[in-house]
Every structure is written in C-alpha cells, then in structure tokens.
Amino acid sequence: MALAGTKMAAVTALDMQIQARGIPIRGVGGPPWTVDYEDSATQAQIDEGEALAAAFDGKDRIYRTLADILANVSALSKAQKDAIAADLEAGSPSKMLRGSGINVPSLFALHFSLNSAGVPPADKTMCRDYITTLYVQDNPYYLDQPPFSAGIAVYGLAPVE
C-alpha cells in the first residue's frame, strides 16, 4: 500500500507474501528465512509457508508502477479477467472497496463508472482492467496464483536488482 518506487525490505515482502496466502503467522526472520506460525496454522499452511520461505530470493522489493502492472493485467485471458472481476466485485460492499490502500478512492470512482447505466461494454472492460491494476498495487500478492485462477502471476512488487 504505497506509491510506485517505494522500497520494501525483503523480510517484509516475504511476510506479506505468506500472509496474502491466508497463512496465520506471527512474523518472519532471516536470512536464513524462518517463519513463526500462529498456533492456529495447519500443517498444510506451515508446509506452504516453508516452501515460500525456501524459494524466496532474499531481495528487497519495490512497488511497481501502475503502467507496468496494467501491461500484465491487459495480457491476461478473458477467462482470467472474468474470474478476477467476479472476485473483486463480490460482497457488499465489493471486495475492491473494502481496502485501506492508497488507491481506494480511485477504486470507488471506477466502481461507480462500472455500475453506471449507459457505459459501453468496451469501457466496462477497461474499467475492470484499471480496477485490477489499482487493487494489485495496493495488494501486491493478490494475483500470486489466486485460488480462483491458479495460472495467474501478476505482482504489485518487483525485486530490487
């Protein structure tokens, strides 16, 4: 939940990635990378967290620009975009509106446009791509193999080289 170009320490990025998978943790340390799990973590969650920690490259991260994220979102298939839209538009209020990131005000405006009468289908498609882009910047691991479409890998962060 930061502006493009903002750096994030590697340990924070790994912590965020594990929590984005719904794995209950107290925190992450390292290197070498260690994960402290909440008592409620299942063995399957612990195994997944350990795999993420083992695969982690140890690099700090930087928030990606909206244009870079949009390029990745635009390249997704219609089926993938439809699955994302169904997830982000679910609930009342919609999932996309329940965050606290820097892009939430823009998400509200796009949500209004998306649901306004007379908006052409092509504009609704563009709105959905922009909504996904903004949401990914605020939630950098939202599209890291999401459960509704496991073939997607679009990140709001990039490794600092």
How many structural domains are formed by the residues? Answer: 2
End-to-end separation in angstroms reads: 21 Å
Structural class: alpha+beta
Low-pLDDT windows of residues: none
**How many extended strands?**
7
Helical content (DSSP H or I, runs of 4+):
40-55%
Strand order of the largest sheet: 1-4-7
Number of helices: 6
Mean pLDDT: 95
Reading the helices and strands in chain order gives EHEEHEHHHHEEE
- The radius of gyration computed from the alpha-carbon positions, rounded to a whole number of angstroms, is 17 Å
Name the beta content range: 5-15%
Key phrases:
single chain, 161 residues, alpha+beta, two-stranded antiparallel sheet, 6 helices, 7 strands
Description:
By secondary structure, the protein is an alpha+beta fold. The protein has two domains: 7-62, no CATH class; 64-159, no CATH class. It has six helices and seven strands. The protein has helices at residues 10-20, 43-55, 66-74, 78-88, 104-114, 121-138, and strands at residues 7-8, 25-29, 34-37, 61-63, 143-144, 153-154, 157-159. The strands form three sheets. Strands 1-4-7 form a three-stranded antiparallel beta sheet. A two-stranded antiparallel sheet has the order 2-3. Strands 5-6 form a two-stranded antiparallel sheet. The radius of gyration is 17 Å and the shape is globular. The model has no long low-confidence stretch (mean pLDDT 95).
